[in-house]
Write a structure and sequence with these properties.
The protein has 29 helices and 14 strands. The protein is α/β, with parallel strands linked by helices and 700 residues long. It folds into 3 domains: 249 residues, 3-Layer(aba) Sandwich (Rossmann fold); 181 residues, no CATH class; 74 residues, Orthogonal Bundle (Arc Repressor Mutant, subunit A), CATH 1.10.10.10. α6 runs parallel beside α11. The longest helix is centred in the first third of the chain and has 31 residues.
Length: 700
Amino acid sequence: MIEADKKNFFKLIDSLKKYRRAEIINNNGDKLTTKLYVDLLRDDYILDMCLRENTTFLIGRKGTGKSTIFLKVEDELKKKGKIFPCYIDVKTIYDASKPTNTFYEEVGNKYIPSYKRYIWEFNFIKAMINSIIEKLDEGFIKQNLFSKIIFDDKKKEIIKKLSSLREELLSGDAISRISLPQFEKYLTNIGTKRSDSQKENIGLSAVAGIEKLNFSSDITNTCDTSFTTEEQKSISNLILESFNIQELIDKIQSILKSVKFNSMFILLDDFSELDDISIKYFTDIIIAPLNNRSNEFIKFKIASYPTRTYFGAIDPTKIDQVELDFFKLYVSHNKSKMEELAIDFTKRILTKRSDVYLKKDISIFFDVSKIDMNEYYKLLFQTSFNVPRIMGYILNNCYESATIYNKPITIKVIKNGALKYYENTLYSFFSETTYSTSSMNEKISILQLKELLDEIVKKAKQLKTVIIKEKNAKNYDKNFPSSSHFHIFPSYENVIKTLELNYFINKVNEYKNRDSKDVSVYSINYGICEKNNILFGAPENIEYERKYFTNRIFNYSNLISNYLDNLKVIECNSCGKVYSKEQLHHLEFYHYKCNEENCSGTVETKSMSSRYSHLIQEIPDGLLLPREDIKILIELSHCVKAISAKELASIVDISSQSIGQRSIKLDGTHNLVSRVKRNNKYYYELTDDGKDYVNKILAS
């Protein structure tokens, strides 16, 4: 292999691993991010949907390309010049809006939990408005997004209007925060009653905790949310009354229309990283009013996770919902050719990057002497489910084990790469939670999820033996006793949503099973299959999935039912009445209020297991860190040299600013990270204590 080709292949792989809006540049400093864009569907279908003058929700798991699509949308809009693009990193602004601990200590009474939430939400919404103004300033003054003749003619007027908007915001004329005494008086007057036993997200389902835990767990933990629904509504009303939304809309429209812009697209990235209450507040207070009252002038493009999409007062029938995950994306286009369409994307994305980085066919790095390149594309799809970042990590593992030694990538090398990705990256989800500062309930729920995953894998391994011993071999192939897929009844899908969200399993289709009942088919992560010697896929001589994985032995519904029976008790937090799982749908309709006469309690789901709490309590407090800090440490453990915050931010879902701030404490307080300054820029690497810490949590 030519060394120059190997280096370019590494750059190709590295570009796939980049997170969010990381800049990808060539040796000449030219930006390549939008040039590398490959649509999930032919003819740029997804991009065209996002360019429509309609509010759009981009729905997909982490790594499915939402931020990359936003970059491409911005690029296209700047070329056309008729629609103003305004990109906002919601999570970064949200984190920066948190009140300081000093504030918590200075004031304190029974209303402080809800007042802290009010302050946080107020700061966040104010910062979001300011960010929109800054984007206007950046686009008009710095980027010159419209005709220079018009720009020169309107420059002074625009600067004056933007300055006035910012001054109103900062001075409090446009939006003003109320004091704690005013807040307390307001709540007292409306007669809200607090209950310390009431917690956020109570009773969403029998597995509410499980379904939500991987989102902003540290945020939820650091801001106590034990306040009532009435208080939540009060906070929303207070913020909504703090500023005139219509006046804001009118002023933004006036500025944009004065320079011939027809509309404004506000692109909200990482929106689902907020906790539930913040998503609701921001949607109700900002998104819905701006969307509904701007006379079609302002439209939103919102990056959202599955199950984390909230529309509020926005009419779902009047917006576009673009699904990016494998099943949801392809099932609506061609159910019978879903895998074929997905493999086509794998081929297109690698071909595009080969054209840019290699100027050669990517097959030069694979052993195609006996195996067609299309088989490699198929395997890369199966191991990554077309998530570019996962594909990048797996290929990086292949590079380290084969390419670097001038050896071709083989089928076995890719399978080992998938195994290494699971062991080094995916599995850390459970370890991160155990050693994080998340609440005890959240940790227990995640560990219970791990137990469920273990049960799924255990059964898959057992079925392999069952198939081999099966006397009636008509439905099976004893030479390929595959058990990588399973099916469940749709009513159980919420139980495994977090496992799917984090790629431990992947939904692949929906069918009728052998008993003519609707079922959802899932596959176990390829790396997990490799680790446990589970054969992936269906035998070649049996029709894939429909006739094979809908066999009765692959029905895992009873497994999940038994798991739930041993996991939770559904109980009223006031009178103690116990409900069955079958009653959950009825309870949901009545907002989980207990139906016992003269009882005003709320139905909760409580853990029946204490074994996890003992395990968690054994971990010394000194080893507990925020989840984001642990992610930084784990990623640094994979680096062979010190890297900058910007480089680190490109491969973890944390902004470079946040990485810099967190690393100060990881260095000075914990001695886990070493910060070295070179040419006015800090570079980070693990200390020996940091390496020991990471080894300890990954071994747990």
